[in-house]
Structure formats: C-alpha cells, structure tokens
C-alpha cells in the first residue's frame, strides 16, 4: 500500500516545487489565444511538451499537475507524458475537478463540480500514472458581501468529499480553495477571507475524518485586490499570509503550496522569497513551496508564440524563471 504521508511530504524537497500545467481545454484555449497561438488538440500537446519535456526541469520540480487530456498524450519523443516525467523523477498529478458553476443559493459565487463519477475517474487516472490530484474551489471577495458562509461551507464539503475519495484511492489530494485577486478589497480583507476559508475547510475536513497528514493545501497569498490601486511589499504579503496560515492551518498537514493567481512572475517570485524567509525565521510548522501556472509559464509562452523554431529560447526562458523561483525558496 502507498504510504500517503511519505508521498505527500516528498514534494517538499529543497529547491523544488510543483508546476501547475493543468489548464482545462477552455483555460488552455484562452491562454494560447492570449499569445496569438492557434488552438487545437495538437497545439495543446505542443504547449505541454514545451514545459514537460524541457531538459533540466527535474532540478526544480518534484511534481507536475496535468489535465486529463495530457495523461494520454505523447511528447515529441513519442513517450506518454506521465511516463517521461516518472522516468525523470518528477511525479505526475491530475486535476480532477470539472470546473465551476454558479452556486444556486448565491448566484454570484461559484461552486466546484466533479464528485459524481470521481471514484471511477480516480481509478483510471491512477492506471494512467497519476500519483496525486488537485481540486480547485474559487472564493470571490466583494466588499463585506462575498464570500457568503453558505458558499464557503458548500465548497469545503466538496473539498472534503474529494479528499476522502482520493485518499481511499491511494492518491495524495491537493486542496486548493483559491481566493481570487480580482476586486477592490484591501490586503486586510484578503487575509481575513483566506483565514475564514481555511478555518471553514478544516472544520469540515474534521467532520469527514480526512487524514490531515497526507493532504497538501494550495492557497493564494494575502494581497490587496487587483483593482484596489494598492501595491503590497513582499514583507507585507509575507507577514499577513503567514499570520493567516498560522491561524487556520493545523501543523500536521504535509505542506502548503502557493498559486500565483495573476501576480506577475517577478512579483510571485519576490513574494515567495519573503514568505519562505519569514517562515524559516519564525519556525513555521509546515514546509512551503510554489505551485504556479501563469507565473512560471507566461514569459515562455510569449517567446514561443506556437513556433517550432522558438522552442529552445522559450525553454531557456522557462528554466531561468524556474531557477529564480527555486532560489526564492532559499532551501538549497
Ligand atoms: P496560477 O499560478 O496561474 O494561479 O495557477 C495555479 C493553479 O493551479 C490554478 O488552479
């Protein structure tokens, strides 16, 4: 039987984090279009190959979260993506939620779908090589109105159900309640909402008897809203984020990873550096690392533009960003 606690802990090794390369077809299409790249299944395959098969990534990533389509695709080397990752010591994971829909009780909020056939899908993903999973819930801040308690609670229940199913399937769950950056809110409000979201989540996880030691929490950083006109310093972000996490995340969890959430690559890197430093200095009880999508991939997509001849330069750009983010951890 898989030792889930050891597996969950194994992502947190010095200098390494997790790449989120799990954009759904819808999100991948939006991302590629943003850089003027045409979209088709073949272009999505090339998009994945650019990152997954970039030589040397294994120095910086312990795992990569994939999308279901990618588990079955092959790289330019004709090897299935999960197989080539495993061969390089990078653990393949899979996004298992099926996206969001408006919450009937509060239509401006979103609720995550995907529990119905989850056990069957988990068995398939496992047979295709996945060893860990991710489920994303979305939390929107709007003044003091949103999020509502009912929406926080419903998303927490679904995250708990997900985690329970994943653990019984012998896989590690990443629980990602993403508090969105979009909005006019202050950093203090972001901190309060992150704390409340995680607090609600852990009380529901206890009701469902989810084993805390083999879960990974994926969280947003505490930031002023993107329309607030306020720019936070890395020290402010680190202090507030860590305070929110210390207040709401039990010490037993395997670790905490951060999403980039629309921060620019340099900002996500500087904030991670301040957070890691403060966590070390203050003796935070859990290991921390990155699990970025946009902050790791965007600069490379800009260079790639969907053209074969740009692959080496785009990969060099990706590797340079990975090295900076890895250095920001300060753990090597
Ligand atoms: P970003 O780093 O682009 O926010 O994506 C991380 C992620 O996994 C979102 O679900």
How would you characterize the overall build of this protein?
By secondary structure, this protein is of the alpha/beta class. The chain has helices at residues 4-9, 25-34, 41-52, 68-71, 81-87, 118-127, 149-168, 187-207, 234-248, 265-281, 294-304, 311-329; strands at 17-21, 61-66, 91-95, 100-103, 106-112, 132-139, 172-179, 216-219, 255-258, 288-290. The protein has 12 helices and 10 strands. The strands form 2 sheets. An 8-stranded parallel β-sheet has the order 1-2-3-6-7-8-9-10. A hairpin with a 2-residue loop joins strand 4 (100-103) and strand 5. Helix 10 packs antiparallel against helix 11 (294-304). The longest helix has 21 residues, at 187-207. It starts with a helix and ends with a helix. 1,3-dihydroxyacetonephosphate binds at residues 20, 136, 176, 259-261, 292-295.
Give a concise summary.
The protein contains 12 helices and 10 strands.
Total count of helical runs of at least 4 residues? 12
If you compute it from the alpha carbons, what radius of gyration comes out, rounded to the nearest whole angstrom?
A: 19 Å
Overall strand count: 10
Please write the string of helix (H) and strand (E) elements. Answer: HEHHEHHEEEHEHEHEHEHEHH
Ligands bound, unique? 1,3-dihydroxyacetonephosphate
Poorly predicted regions: none
Largest sheet: 8 strands, parallel
Helix content: 40-55%
Spatial separation of the terminal alpha carbons: 31 Å
3D shape:
globular
Beta-strand percentage range: 15-25%
Summed over residues and divided by their number, the pLDDT gives a mean of: 98
What structural class should be given to the helix and strand makeup?
A: alpha/beta
